[in-house]
Specification:
There is one protein chain. The chain is built from two helices and no strands. It has 42 residues and is an all-alpha fold. The protein is rod-shaped and about 50 Å long.
Length: 42
């Protein structure tokens, strides 16, 4: 966790990091799905 953000926004920091982690997981799953697609017909 980035200490400067936590220091500047102690109340919001937890929520911000949780949201960032959630978005990263969604992005990761999207990449995995895209990588699994079959592009051989192109």
């Amino acid at each position: 966790m980035c200490h400067s953000v936590k220091k500047a926004y102690p109340n919001e920091a937890e929520g911000l990091f949780a949201e960032a982690q959630k978005m990263a997981q969604i992005r990761y799953k999207t990449y995995i799905r895209k990588a699994a697609e079959d592009w051989s017909n192109e």
